[in-house]
Amino acid sequence: VCELCENADAGFPLKNVCGACRVKIEFIPEPHCSGCGRTLGQAGLRCVHCSGDYFNYDRLYAACAYSGVMKELLHRYKFNGRKALKDFFSHLLFEATQRCLPMENFEAVIAVPADPAHLKERGFNQALLIARPLAKKLGLPHLSDCLKRHPSRSSQWRLGKNERKTNVENQFYVLDIAAIRDKKIVLIDDIVTTGHTVSECARVLKIAGARHVTVLALARGI
User: Fold this and answer.
1) Rounded to whole angstroms, how far apart are CA atoms 16 and 95?
2) C-alpha 100, offset from chain centre
3) CA–CA dist 124, 116 (Å, integer)
4) What confidence score (pLDDT) does residue 64 get?
5) What are the pLDDT digits (tens) for 126-177?
6) What one-character-per-residue DSSP string does 144-171 give?
């Protein structure tokens, strides 16, 4: 069943195209900024979006832009309980690792923890459901239980850029430092906007001894 148009004969997804709507889910093309993940312009040397910020992760990659079909699918996944999309999303991220990071020697997969209030409301952590099958596809340990989150002060989507950064400060902590120490980690999230949430996760992972943190997201706000 096509999750977007609900056509039982659509066979969605097929090669990243809705079989009924014939709308392609676009990948973010190269070149893009390794700091914030946004596509760069002609100059390609300085990203105006993140040049004034400091991020604690080493690199950020996103499979798609947060727009069009992908935006609609993510809304259905997060807010309408279409959890079956997790398999499609994990496959998209697996393809992204093969395309962008084929030679990397990662050692663990960790999902960004959900805010406890959102977890109670939705009943699932959308990043976690994607990270589990992705770790299996990559043949890596799944260590999401090592990274935890305190209740947020406010919902991120309600805040401005600077407020978002402050809102997630000291919201994450590592339970099992020994499991994290000296690891090259792939940190999984569904949507990255300002990058402050994943940056704060990377900060505490590195304090716990992680050697390298690469963020891999399904979609990037552009």
Assistant:
1) 11
2) 15
3) 10
4) 83
5) 999 999 999 999 999 999 999 999 887 656 555 555 666 677 888 999 999 9
6) GGGEEEPPPSS-GGGS-HHHHHHHTTT-
**Long-range pairs of 123-131 with CB within 8 A, sequence gap ≥ 24:** 123/81, 124/83, 126/77, 126/78, 126/86, 126/190, 127/188, 127/189, 127/190, 129/83, 129/86, 130/86, 130/89, 130/90, 130/93, 130/188, 130/190, 130/218, 131/90, 131/188
Cβ within 8 Å of residue 112, ≥6 positions away? 127, 147, 187, 188, 189, 197, 198, 201
Q: What is the C-alpha separation between 182 and 140, in angstroms, rounded?
A: 15
What residues contact 122, with CB distance under 8 A and at least 6 apart?
A: 78, 79, 81, 114
Of the candidates 68, 70, 72, 50, the residue with the CA atom closest to the CA atom of residue 59: 50
Percent helix, percent strand, percent coil in the chain, to nearest 5: 35, 20, 45
Kindly compute the dihedral angle of the four CA atoms of residues 86, 14, 73, 100, in this order, to the nearest 10 degrees: 70
Helix (H) or strand (E) segment spanning residue 218: strand 212-220
Intervals of the chain under pLDDT 70 = 1-53, 153-165, 222
136: left (phi over 0), alpha (psi -120 to 50) or beta: alpha
Alpha-carbon distance values, 188 to 78, 112, 156 (Å) = 15, 6, 17
> Scanning the structure block, which residue is given the tokens 């014939």?
22
